[in-house]
Sequence to fold (869 residues):
Amino acid sequence: MKKMLNKANLYWLLFCVGGYALLMGLMSAGIIDAVNQTVIQTIIVNIILAISLNLIIGITGQFSLGHAGFMCVGAYSAGVMLKQIGGLNGFFIGILIGMVINAVLALIVAIPTLRLKGDYLAIATLGFGEIIRIIVLNMDITNGAAGLVLPRVVDFTILFVFMVVALLIVVNFTRSAAGRACISIREDEIASEAMGINTTKYKVIAFVIGALIASWAGALYAGNFYVINPGMFTYSKSIDILVIVVFGGMGSMTGSVISAVVLGFINSFLQSFSNMRMIIYGLALVMIMVFRPSGLLGTREFKFSSLFKRFTKKKEASQ
Amino acid sequence: MTVFFQQLINGLSLGSIYALIALGYTMVYGIIKLINFAHGDIYMLGAYFGFLAITYLHVGFFPAILISMALCAILGVVIERIAYKPLRNATRIAALITAIGVSYFLEAGTQQVMGTSVRAFPQVLNNQVFNIAGLRITEQQIYIFVTTIVLMLILQFIVKKTKIGRAMRAVSTDSDAARLMGINVDATISITFAIGSALAGAAGVLVGIYYSSINPLMGMLPGIKAFIAAVFGGIGIIPGAMFGGFFIGICEAIVSGYGGSLFKDAVVYIILIVILVIKPAGLLGKNVKEKV
Amino acid sequence: MTILKVSDLTRNFGGLCAVNNVNMEIDEQELIGLIGPNGAGKTTLFNLLTGVYEPSSGKIELNVDGQMKSIGGMKPYAVTRLGLARTFQNIRLFKDLSVLDNVKIAMHKNIKYGVLAGIFRLPAFYAEEEKVEKEAINLLKIVRLDHKKDEFAKNLPYGEQRRLEIARALATHPKILFLDEPAAGMNPQETGELTALIHEIKEKFKVTIILIEHDMSLVMSICERIYVLDYGKCIASGSPEQIKNHPRVIEAYLGEEI
Fold:
């Protein structure tokens, strides 16, 4: 217990609570207007999506383009339950159902396809994502192409709490033995296996955790933005998430968070340019990749502990 | 049975178009290991080039195809030089994101210039219908199929028999070694992009004629399906892409013909996954185990 | 006591017979050399023994708790878990990770907390991680890399990378350690240090060591027994003295006598 309350963890706790209080205060004071509130809600959903995909692509090195499919399942599970049961109860039951379905789906997808490498895996997962979407499109309970119109049951607090929990899970996983195993698969699968690591097992674990967290993101989206339809979960959505991850730096969770925030605001800023928006966005992607191909942060992470080290070093130097 | 053969014929036309796009994917992948996500949009632009040539220059079928192929080739080379060349030594995923950026740019740019609405593609071919043994074959279908076959034969000739084809094969096997042997790698890659894009341009005009309508987002889905066709046949392998294209086109047509049009895309993906699980390197690909 | 027994082991690649009817019997804590001209099948034999390739025919048996257990065709990670560890001819470190992490990863099979304990940071997580860190640093001390523990593996000089690979293999707690050309690319001084290191490891960890090496001075000075491969066949085995004077070995290395 003592070790859990170390300095760095305490700072993180303060950071989260402070961030929450600050945003909440600014919102209730009306300094953050309704438009920007929507932007922040989108950013939170995108952060959850990005870190869950980053776990699969950045940490484990498995190139998946099917993330929108898992988000879709989460969104529709919550959406259907909101319709059937209603209220926050329905929402949380929906999340649970979504997680169960996604866990099963992720296993079905992972076991045959994770043997594939690189681009083959990418296209196979893209196919799975699209199959999920097409099934949803042709079901009655999901109301087909028209989608579902839902009440808003999620508030900022719920969004924020889910984001923090998702971050905790992903970061703690990455820094545990299992996370090290996943990273070693990314670095060199053959060496990893020669070191006694069951590579298939850890690929599947990372994939399933990623899918489960993506289903939260979907559910939060459904509970927050009133409307869901299958057209929102095409492979382009997977690509949008991928862009956030790569832009932030594959393997860096800090990078994913910063990148989701930056891209979220760029997107909302470009909204007023309507047609020019995608032109500028496309050009920006090309420029970023040409000038910074490893993303904003590469694989680096922000750590309070290294911040301390820097401070103490500076003090020592000045003395 | 008539339904089956009728859909087989329809599938051959659709498959021709997929195959032409898939060839560009496979050639570019073979040479620089990049999934050129913007390739579907080059096909879309090919359709627009054909549309403009026919509408404003009042040319016929063959000049329209040639103009479109030439313009697409130039476009492909320009894109490669500006966007992809600086990333040749970056990670593959960075190059992929760049390709996605290019794709967004081309789609949105076309929407900006040509408008977002669907446009009618002018009819340059007589729409004569032949009835053979109860099957319906249109003149357009014959043109599409024959054009595709001729282009593929030319491509096979270039790759197998010419100096530039040999250079392409050398660069795709080992670009560093090719460079040491005095091959101009940059020029070879440019030519590969030019040829691949030209084929996509031809496919664009053909599809415009076939469906007689075009729009700025028409490249997305066929782009993905053509890529699937390329993977299906074994990416990087030219006959694989042809075969994959025809196979996917025919499957799709047959599924639609038997009333499954809502699920026709799902069927394509299922076929893909099944093939990859059984034979991870594609139908004609060789399974290479990494050397330890 | 026999720890590893190879009987009639064969591996074909298409028409090529890379390893042809090889028989070996290795005792506990022996130091075995495996030599032969380039392309003789030495690395393929290693790959067969460590599970990278499946044998075409023949048997590989490992002594697990006094019982001979067939391990031919088992997955590499399973073989490693039974106590076989290796280094690679072309160094395969986790290049973009720190020296310390390279070793920690290899300790995976002996870490006793699960995925959930890691995610929720249960006490087991902290206790085990502390142990892992200590042991990893100890291993790095043995190969004299502890002062570089936070360096990226790719930034180490060649000789140190080879030593790190050995430390990483030791971290799996092996019974048999396979070293694939450990002295390749080293200068004579480094080779000398490596020779001392191999001796030290053998004494300290009581492991059996099997090494492939082209540096004959190293092989002849430390190996107790040597197997010679040529064209996939085992053409000779015995003590360094016997091997030096074996007519077929001389033939394989120098060509036929005139």
Summary: The longest strand of chain B covers residues 129-132. The mean pLDDT of chain B is 90.
